[in-house]
Design goal:
Blueprint: E1 2-7, H1 12-21, E2 29-35, H2 41-48, E3 53-55, H3 64-77, E4 82-85, H4 94-99, E5 104-108, H5 120-126, E6 131-138, E7 148-155, H6 162-185, E8 189-192, E9 195-198
Parallel strand pairs: 1-2, 1-4, 2-3, 4-5
Antiparallel strand pairs: 5-6, 6-7, 8-9
Bound molecules: 5-O-phosphono-beta-D-ribofuranosylamine.
Residues 9-14, 42, 86-87, 107-109, 170, 173 line the site of 5-O-phosphono-beta-D-ribofuranosylamine.
Length: 203
Amino acid sequence: MKVGVLISGRGSNLRSLIAATREPGFPAEIVIVISNKPDAPGLEVARAAGIPTQVVNHKDYPTREAFDAELDAALRRAGIELICSAGFMRILSDGFVESWRDRQLNIHPSLLPAFKGLRVHERVLEAGCRITGCTVHFVRAAMDEGPIVAQVAVPVLEGDTPDMLADRVLEAEHKLYPLALKLVASGRARVVNERVEISGGSG
Ligand code: GRF
C-alpha cells in the first residue's frame, strides 16, 4: 500500500515509520513526504532515506480550501492510498477529510478521547493523571477525533516535567505508529460503525 506522510516539524515519527516500512514483508511503503513548512527538519529525514519530498506551504495559499486542494492533488499525483499525519500541525477542511475518510491516520500524544488539542503533557500534569499515553486514530473532521486503531499507556512519574513526559510518550509513539500502520495497511484493522475492528493474525 502506498503511503504519504504529512509533517510540519521534527519528523521523529516519520523516522520510525520509514524504518518499519523497510522491514521485509511490511505491507506499506512511504512514497512521498509532504510538509506545510519549508524548514521542517523532518524533510531532511525523508531526503536522507531517499524518499521524495514536497513542500506545500500554507502561506502560499489564500484559503484553507486552496491549500487543501493542492495537498490533495500532490497526494493523488503520487498515487497515495493512505495518509499518515505525523506531527502535521494544520487543520484540514471537512471536504479534504471526507474525501480521505478511512484512509487517513493521525497520531496524538494522549489517550484519546482525553486531552485533545495542544499542550497535552502540561494539561496531563496539571490534572494529576497517573497515566497517559498515545493514540493512533482515523481522522475525522473534528480535531483529534475518529475511530481508534491502537493505543499505548505510559506512566506519569513523580517529578515529571512536560518535557520529560513528552519524551517518554514519544518513545511509545515510535513503537505504536508502525504497529497501527501495519494493522491498517494489511487490512486487519477496518472501520465498522465508527469503531475499528481488528481481525485475524496473532501479532
Ligand atoms: C508527536 O508527539 C505527535 O504525537 C504530535 O506531534 C509530535 C510530532 O513529533 N502530534 P515528530 O515530528 O514526529 O517528531
